[in-house]
Amino acid sequence: MNPTNNIVCESFGWHGEKEIFKFQITNSHGNYVELINYGAIVKSIVVPDKVGNKENVVLGFPTLEGYVKDQSYIGATVGRFANRISNAAFPIENKIYHLDKNDGKNNNHSGSAGFNNKVFDFIVEEDAVIFCLESKNGEGGFPGNLKTKVTYKWTDQNELKIEFLAEADESTPLNFTNHSYFNLSACQDKIVNHRLSVKASKILESTADYIPTGKIIPADGYLFLNNRLADIMQEKGLNLYYVLDRDSVNEKPVCELLEEKSGRMMCVYTSYPGVQLYTGDYLNCNIVGEHNKLYSSFDGLCLECQYYPDSPNHEHFPNTIFQSGQVYQETIIYAFDVIQ
């Protein structure tokens, strides 16, 4: 429990006939996160730099309109199945299930069934905001009625803790993540000068449309050991799945991100077996309205802790088919600090 936290809830607009709420969780240092129940989205994370300036370090929009029109999953909870499923189809036992083809011939982030644009119910506890969603059997082509909870906690140590809980009434693929775009300079600069370490020596080999071939290969030229992103990116974006070195999972940070000018650092901890690094090369958000907001390539990067993409189509990948009544439970922690 963290009784020093203060949680404030206020209206953030309407989506159809459903009211959307914004939740601000403030810790004892006055640092805070903002969440909305549309998409179970992380709207902002406000933390100090090395001289004490408190600024938002994730991309977001000032109004609900921005999130409704957004096509880049900014800040969103992604489910039922994060990342891509090849040919928008997968087998369970002897039956083939067909999903929306929303990424060429493939399915990405669950298509029309995606949680990023769903309105969640919510529970506010003393130290947490819990978003709840029920997804019906057949939605987007996915089998089973699914109940999901996404729990957010914000600690005095400036840790955003996210827990995913889910259970379905028949076998279904599950893979949840958070799709926040981080920029520790508070968008004063592009992310290319951020320094990144990923505790992984292997990646998934993928095709040009980001579908795994099934091979797990050495990271080689994509090894991040406190490298500047620009040194690895070489003027083009990255969209890579890193297979985490097992001894680092849950015990030590699986990723460390540093922006030297501000002194801000973020450490990532997770129970998941890997992380998708996406450097935001397809970002192109110009939301027209009272408050225009423009984002472009490399304004933020995602560190999406998750199971392997396209897992249902690769028997040797970690299993993501959860049986009826089997509980899905995974965690992601984004922890913020400063160095001088």
TrEMBL record:
<feature type="active site" description="Proton acceptor">
    <location>
        <position position="304"/>
    </location>
</feature>
<comment type="pathway">
    <text>Carbohydrate metabolism; hexose metabolism.</text>
</comment>
<dbReference type="InterPro" id="IPR014718">
    <property type="entry name" value="GH-type_carb-bd"/>
</dbReference>
<comment type="similarity">
    <text>Belongs to the aldose epimerase family.</text>
</comment>
<dbReference type="InterPro" id="IPR008183">
    <property type="entry name" value="Aldose_1/G6P_1-epimerase"/>
</dbReference>
<dbReference type="InterPro" id="IPR047215">
    <property type="entry name" value="Galactose_mutarotase-like"/>
</dbReference>
<keyword id="KW-0106">Calcium</keyword>
<feature type="active site" description="Proton donor">
    <location>
        <position position="179"/>
    </location>
</feature>
<dbReference type="GO" id="GO:0005737">
    <property type="term" value="C:cytoplasm"/>
</dbReference>
<dbReference type="GO" id="GO:0033499">
    <property type="term" value="P:galactose catabolic process via UDP-galactose, Leloir pathway"/>
</dbReference>
<dbReference type="GO" id="GO:0030246">
    <property type="term" value="F:carbohydrate binding"/>
</dbReference>
<dbReference type="GO" id="GO:0004034">
    <property type="term" value="F:aldose 1-epimerase activity"/>
</dbReference>
<comment type="subunit">
    <text>Monomer.</text>
</comment>
<feature type="binding site">
    <location>
        <begin position="179"/>
        <end position="181"/>
    </location>
    <ligand>
        <name>beta-D-galactose</name>
    </ligand>
</feature>
<protein>
    <recommendedName>
        <fullName>Aldose 1-epimerase</fullName>
        <ecNumber>5.1.3.3</ecNumber>
    </recommendedName>
</protein>
<feature type="binding site">
    <location>
        <position position="245"/>
    </location>
    <ligand>
        <name>beta-D-galactose</name>
    </ligand>
</feature>
<dbReference type="InterPro" id="IPR015443">
    <property type="entry name" value="Aldose_1-epimerase"/>
</dbReference>
<dbReference type="InterPro" id="IPR011013">
    <property type="entry name" value="Gal_mutarotase_sf_dom"/>
</dbReference>
<feature type="binding site">
    <location>
        <begin position="83"/>
        <end position="84"/>
    </location>
    <ligand>
        <name>beta-D-galactose</name>
    </ligand>
</feature>
<dbReference type="Pfam" id="PF01263">
    <property type="entry name" value="Aldose_epim"/>
</dbReference>
<keyword id="KW-0413">Isomerase</keyword>
<dbReference type="InterPro" id="IPR018052">
    <property type="entry name" value="Ald1_epimerase_CS"/>
</dbReference>
<dbReference type="GO" id="GO:0006006">
    <property type="term" value="P:glucose metabolic process"/>
</dbReference>
<keyword id="KW-0119">Carbohydrate metabolism</keyword>
